[in-house]
Amino acid sequence: HTAGAGSDSASPSDTYMGYAWSAEDGIWNWHPDPVLAKGEEGTWDEECVKMGHVFFDGTMYHMYYSNNYDIGYATSSNGIDWVKDYDTSPVIVKGLEGSWFDEWIQPGALVKTGDTLFMFALGHDGTYSWSGHCLGTARTGLFWSVDFKNWHMTNNAEPVFGIGLPGTWDHGWA
Length: 174
What we know:
- The chain is mainly β.
- The chain has strands at about 1-5, 15-20, 30, 35, 50-55, 60-65, 70-75, 85, 105-115, 115-125, 140-145, 150-155.
- Strands 1, 2, 3 and 4 form a four-stranded antiparallel sheet that branches.
């Protein structure tokens, strides 16, 4: 199962989250309608929803998604009908000025070990490098939670993957 962002307009902020699944035959099927839309005016995710990452705990689907700057949280019992948690969202906000993610933070891979859910998240500090195919500098941080809503940073609030030296394959994004 996977979630992905799409748009039906030329505006990058008119995005929706979609749903696709595949049986063991490798043929992908798409749900015909978006499963998560941007929020209404005045909500934290009114600009867009994208970069969804989903964890299934055996009974409930937990989605973390971006509004271009912060990370929100939604749940679903079937992977199609989602309820955004506006009481706790955003669950991870971009960092303070001068941090490795003071421009934006987006969710990444989710891994559960014991009672703890870990999230790799890509953050950007607002600096830009125009060389090669990279636009900007982004680093990967690691966060953890035991309740899906309250997140804590690991590694003394430093990224776990930093960017490489100029000229290396990871000099702009890691």
